[in-house]
Write a structure and sequence with these properties.
The chain is α+β, with helices and mostly antiparallel strands. It contains two helices and six strands, in the order αββαββββ.
């Protein structure tokens, strides 16, 4: 079983409702996407698709489709406002 599926199962069994995926662009700015836990399973396996042309100086419009792989070693659960969010 892929590492991503194992990480997803741990988060789901811990009661996490949303997962925040964060990448840092070449300018040091965080870019993020928040997904409900059930929708996040595919992201853990396939990565997060994003448009590189929306990041200044990163890619041209005609070559801008990218996927960021999830680093399962960096996943942690953050308790926030009484709920749980995985980062």
């Amino acid at each position: 079983m892929p590492e991503g599926v194992n990480a997803w199962r741990i988060l789901k069994s811990a009661g996490v409702k949303y997962v925040k995926f964060v990448i840092v662009d070449i300018h040091g700015r965080p870019r993020l996407e928040v997904l409900p836990i059930d929708a996040a399973r595919d992201a853990f396996v396939d990565g997060i698709a994003y448009d590189g042309s929306s990041i200044p100086a990163y890619a041209t419009v005609n070559k801008s489709d990218f996927a960021a792989a999830v680093d399962t070693d960096a996943v942690y659960i953050e308790t926030w406002n009484g709920g749980k969010t995985a980062l």
